[in-house]
Amino acid sequence: MPQAEFEIEGVDRQREDARLAALMAAGILDTPPEPAYDTITRLAAAYFHADAATISFADASRIWIKSHWGQAIRELPRKDSIFDLVLAEDGPLIVTDISAHPQHDRLSMRVRSHNAASFVSVPIRSFDGRILGSLSVFSKRAIQKIQPEAVRSLEGLADMVSSQLELRRLRNTLTENRKGPRRAHHTASAGNQDWPRPADLHHALDRGQFVLYYQPEVDLVTRRIVGLEALIRWDHPERGLVPPMDFIPLAEECGMILPIGDWGIGEACSQIQKWCVEDPLHASIRVGVNLSASQFSREGLADHVETLLVQFGISSRQLGLEMTESSIIPNMHVAMEVLGSLRRLGVSLLMDDFGTGYSSLSYLHSFPFDVLKIDRSFVCRMTEGDQPLQIVRTIIELARVLGMDVVAEGIETQEQYHLLREMGCRFGQGFLFARPMSAEAVTQLLRLPGRVLPEPAPALQACA
User: Fold this and answer.
1) CA distances from 50 to 37, 117, 152, 369 (A)
2) What is the secondary structure of 123-151 as a DSSP string?
3) Coil, strand, or helix at residue 323?
4) CA proximity to 400, closest of 441, 428, 371, 380
């Protein structure tokens, strides 16, 4: 039986970039199920008398389930996945009895979603032999032996998938040629025209240079820390701490926003676990993670999040997902499905920067949000006249009617703090209480008696 190393020490960047390029050329990621692929999974499951079968493809951070027979799963994290084992083997992976395997515990995590006792997985390759995904069959019972001809039959079905991919690639190439050459795009700050580049983002993700900072959300009456917003930073070895506005636009443009965003959700879940291990009472804290429009438009997002919650052993109520209005409007149908699946999972849903996008009032009641976050631009202008103050008051009243909580962002002065309390806004965050800080610094704050912050000092910074 092939034995793969269960610790993938590293990925050859050049080979991985070429593999991802072949994957993108096939145009297979995050696309609706297609009957041709469903036929193949049904055939594979029937041949092996299996309980489940999947056709999946792996990008930098996720396993996309293109077709399934049995339990419906849209996507899973790539970390600790069968795909990496198939990639390491560069060929079929056969496990006849997971319970008897030396790496039983870790292997069980990889097939938890299928509740399998045995499985066979073979690679799906591109036209030039690169492994893009896998065709896998899973059984809830251990199998004494799998005949070589059975594995060859599964490889034959995988070859059928490869043929479909090649046809897709050729069609995509023809379409692109008809459109003509695309103009190059550049994203860089003034005086720094060639940085960052997509390769810099790849390097940063590979080398663990991205970090999460956390800004506390507090109860405005008690000053007790009730939540945290996770904010990404790039800890560059030469440039220091790079703010997100200097690299997120490029990440969205070049497609790196998905693996970077997935890293952020996983890192937040890992940190939640660490805080709960230190003190189980910290389980009441919700950590909010910002989603890009690309992340939010994935119909398999709930599957991905659920797997992370199980992997780190945390409750869904401990994780919040924050999204802006602009990430919802472009595809309302997908938005409703994604929000519904996340709500059923029990994850908190927060609308960030509320009021700055489209006509929020016309559709807000249709979406299952738990929290509205008042954009800092409204909070900053509250003291400038009646109109800005009335806008904030209206948002607070709207949330009350809809049964939602409100978090006011960007509180920087005592006057703003007291006005919000008078209007009945219960929660807030801003420099007046705490700036975004490292996980280690947050750990020290959480050790304060009752997690209560000191009385805010006078204004630390005027609104910009």
Assistant:
1) 17, 11, 16, 40
2) EEE-TTS-EEEEEEEEESS--S---HHHH
3) strand
4) 371
In this predicted structure, the answer to whether residue 441 has a pLDDT above a threshold of 70 is yes
Contact 62, 304 (CB under 8 A): yes
Q: Could you tell me the CA-to-CA distances from 143 to 4, 85, 197 in Å, in that order?
A: 19, 20, 49
DSSP class per residue in 162-230 = HHHHHHHHHHHHHHHHHH-PPPP-----TT-TT-S-HHHHHHHHHTT-EEEEEEEEEETTT-BEEEEEE
DSSP string, 381-421: TGGG-HHHHHHHHHHHHHHHHHT-EEEE----SHHHHHHHH
Q: Is it true that the peptide bond before 181 is cis, omega within 30 degrees of 0?
A: no
- Pairs from 32-41 (Cβ < 8 Å, separation ≥ 24): 33/66, 33/67, 34/66, 34/67, 36/164, 37/66, 37/67, 37/161, 37/164, 38/67, 38/69, 40/67, 40/135, 40/157, 40/160, 40/161, 41/67, 41/68, 41/69, 41/135
Q: Looking at residue 186, what is its pLDDT?
A: 41
Q: Name the pLDDT band for 191 (thresholds 50, 70, 90).
A: very low
> What burial class does residue 141 get, using C-beta atoms within 10 Å of its C-beta: 0-12 exposed, 13-18 middle, 19+ buried?
exposed
**How far apart (Å, rounded) are the C-alpha atoms in residues 339 and 346?**
11
Separation between Cα atoms, residue 325 and residue 68, nearest integer Å: 33
Pair 306, 300: CB distance under 8 Å: no
CB 252 within 8 A of CB 193: no
Rg (CA), the chain: 24
Task: Return the C-alpha torsion angle 356, 358, 364, 367, nearest 10.
Answer: -100
Q: What is the pLDDT of residues 352-361, one digit of tens each?
A: 877 665 445 5
Q: Calculate helix-pair angle for 257-278, 301-312, nearest 10 degrees.
A: 30
Given a contact cutoff of 8 angstroms between Cβ atoms, the answer to whether 99 and 117 are in contact is yes
Q: What is the largest CA-CA distance in the chain?
A: 79
CB-based contacts of 305-310 (< 8 A; 24+ apart in sequence): 305/265, 305/342, 305/345, 305/347, 306/345, 307/76, 307/77, 307/112, 307/113, 308/77, 308/265, 308/266, 308/269, 309/269, 309/345, 310/112
- Mean residue pLDDT of the chain comes to 85
d(CA 265, CA 274): 14
Q: Tokens 């705490």 sit at which residue? A: 434
Closest-CA residue to 83 (of 452, 75, 323): 75
Separation CA 133–CA 158 (nearest Å): 9
For residues 61 and 298, the answer to whether their CB atoms sit within 8 Å is no
